[in-house]
Specification:
heterodimer, A: 157 residues, alpha+beta, 4-stranded mixed β-sheet, 7 helices, 4 strands, 45% helix, 11% strand, B: 442 residues, alpha/beta, 6-stranded mixed β-sheet, 12 strands, 13% strand
Chain lengths: 157, 442
């Protein structure tokens, strides 16, 4: 189900917690599974649950509770735009609209070629750098004015 | 640059180099000297806690509870596992100070946590890092590896016999995990839903063991307090409001960013440090402590001081020190609509008043903003928020209700205008220009 490398990373996460608390690693393992597979198909969630010796439903609960897990396929690049108030004051809404126009999709949608998905996000804790976006849950992009957005989309192709 | 400006800076002083986050750099700045001093001199746990109490360091995450007192609640002689947990789940809209601490001074957090572990007899700690700042979660893991290799955390630290294991745990997109018991549930590998209190974490915390949870900035201040002495730290601020504090300033100022200033500094001084209002426009309102704090009219803010008591006097809360500045281009209805959506989206769903109430508040503010408001909507909002406040397990319900209550109190006429005229007092193009997002066409 998972590559040897991913399994090795699972083991490292499990080692952070007391021996009888393997379930503590579920968030990290789900994130790693998503990193490997691009999203979290049911089999991946069940695979993580089996690895940690927890009930599959308990792993589903976690996967469906936290916003950064993708329970449906997403594009190669998932762009999450913060539109919360502090970002909005510095162009968060407009940055989101600009990306939507450029990609021709709305929030929660994926481009036909499967390259981009767009998501409206909540506070990323970087309000001083507004407008802010995150690519694939990993890379925080600051001060996303039109020129920077153009550059980002160009680099992602 | 770590800080855009500071007055008597402590935590973030001298962080202008390229590798300030590396162990070598931290040690050269005097880092880990306090942990070493405590262990080598075999300072008693009481002495350490007493120094923290003297500093009147108050929790920097939002509640402002005195840290020394919190530490003294831990049953330090209780045999068995005890935990120290750091809350870096920084997701309160407006707050971005812990991100810079993690970026520029992660070892101060590690040293602070190790000292806390020693003082409270805890041998294990976790730092819960906001999933959205992934790069800094990775950086913190690197810092942990460095500290472990140098013998500052792990077994038998500096030959003292004191053991303290420390790990990083990441969140993955849930504001509620900033609530300390939700955070513990999350570390246990569950949905982040807050627990009933009591029992408090000091008696029943992580895995049911005694646990103390502090904010990142709180832990980062500890080594400095031990270095300068609690009293000197207190004197940097003002009575009952010890020390300096980081303020995250966002919104309509010329230089949004983090500023470290003594508690008690006038808001007007902070605003000046930020280069004043963007485009020289008029200050309309400020949310002085993160989105959960009541909004304060600009004129009141200009007379307020930035400390727990000063902001409380101005009718709000200092919270996490997130200062959201709004100028005359802001439509207060639209601003509240976005905040209300946030709480609706982030309510964990456990308590009915919050789950249902946040949805109602968003729905009603949304229809007012979109020209569909009814005359009775303001009373309806008052009734809904009254049925949330004080009726939920955690503070998210109140946090959702307070903005609604304060926006209506101070800017009620804008809501009435919206309902009556089906449009905003502030023209859309003026609102748009306020954001500073130039070039509109794709």
């Amino acid at each position: 189900m998972f590559s040897a490398e991913t399994l090795q990373k699972f083991a490292r996460e499990v080692s952070k917690y007391p021996a009888d608390q393997k379930q503590s690693a579920v968030m990290a393992c789900l994130a790693l599974a998503q990193e490997e597979q691009g999203w979290l198909p049911p089999e991946a969630i069940e695979g993580v649950a089996a690895y940690l010796g927890m009930a599959p439903i308990a792993a589903y609960e976690v996967a469906s509770f936290y916003n950064m897990y993708d329970l449906k396929p997403v594009g190669k690049y998932k762009i999450t735009v913060c539109t919360n108030l502090p970002c909005a004051l510095s162009g968060g809404y407009h940055a989101g609209e600009y990306v939507q126009k450029k990609l021709g999709i709305g929030y929660g949608e994926t481009t036909v070629d499967g390259v981009f998905s767009l998501k409206e996000g909540e506070c990323m804790g970087a309000c001083g750098d507004a407008p802010v976006m995150i690519v694939n849950n990993r890379t925080m992009c600051s001060h996303m004015l039109p020129e920077q957005i153009d550059k980002l989309l160009e680099e992602c192709k | 640059m770590a800080m855009l400006g500071s007055i008597n800076g402590v935590l973030m002083e001298g962080l202008d180099g390229d590798n300030t986050w590396c162990l070598k750099d931290y040690v050269a700045r005097g880092g880990y000297a306090q942990l070493r001093r405590i262990l080598e001199n075999r300072m008693s746990q009481e002495e350490v806690i007493s120094e923290v109490k003297k500093s009147v360091l108050r929790g920097r995450g939002g509640a402002g509870f005195p840290t020394g007192l919190k530490w003294s609640f831990m049953p330090r002689s209780f045999p068995g596992d005890k935990y120290v947990v750091c809350n870096t789940d920084e997701g309160e809209p407006g707050t971005f100070k812990d991100r810079d601490i993690m970026r520029y001074n992660p070892h101060a957090v590690i040293e602070g946590m190790a000292i806390a572990g020693y003082a409270m007899g805890a041998n294990r700690g976790y730092n819960y890092v906001h999933g959205e700042i992934w790069e800094l979660y990775k950086r913190f893991e690197e810092a942990l590896d460095e500290a472990r290799a140098a013998g500052f955390i792990g077994q038998n630290i500096l030959g003292s016999g004191f053991n303290f294991e420390l790990f990083a745990h990441h969140g993955y997109g849930a504001y509620i995990c900033g609530e300390e018991t939700a955070l513990l549930e999350s570390i246990e590998g569950k949905k982040g839903q807050p627990r009933f209190k009591p029992p408090f974490p000091a008696s029943f915390g992580l895995y049911g063991k005694p646990t103390t949870i502090n904010n990142t900035e709180t832990f980062a201040a500890i080594p400095f307090i031990l270095k300068m002495g609690g009293e000197e730290f207190l004197n940097l601020g003002k009575p009952n409001n010890g020390g300096t504090k980081l303020f995250s300033v966002s919104g309509h100022v010329n230089r949004p960013g983090n500023y470290e200033i003594p508690l008690g500094t006038p808001f007007a001084t902070l605003l000046e440090m930020c280069g004043g209002m963007r485009g020289g426009r008029q200050l309309k309102a400020v949310i002085p402590g993160g989105s959960s704090a009541p909004v304060v009219p600009g004129a009141v803010m200009m007379d307020a001081t930035m400390d727990y008591d000063g902001i409380s006097k101005a009718g709000s809360m200092l919270g996490s020190g997130a200062v959201i500045v709004m100028d005359e281009t802001v439509c207060m209805v639209k601003a509240l609509e976005r905040l209300s959506f946030f709480y609706y989206e982030e309510s964990c769903g456990q308590c009915t008043p919050c789950r249902e109430g946040t949805a109602w508040m968003y729905k009603v503010v949304h229809r007012i903003e979109n020209g569909l408001g009814k005359a009775e909507d303001l009373d309806l909002l008052g009734s809904v928020l009254g049925n949330i406040m004080g009726r939920t397990i955690c503070a998210l319900g109140d946090a959702a209700a307070l903005p609604v209550q304060s926006f209506l109190r101070h800017f009620g006429s804008e809501f009435e205008y919206h309902i009556e005229h089906k449009t905003c007092l502030v023209p859309k193009d003026v609102q748009w220009a306020g954001s500073g997002f130039h070039k509109v066409q794709a």
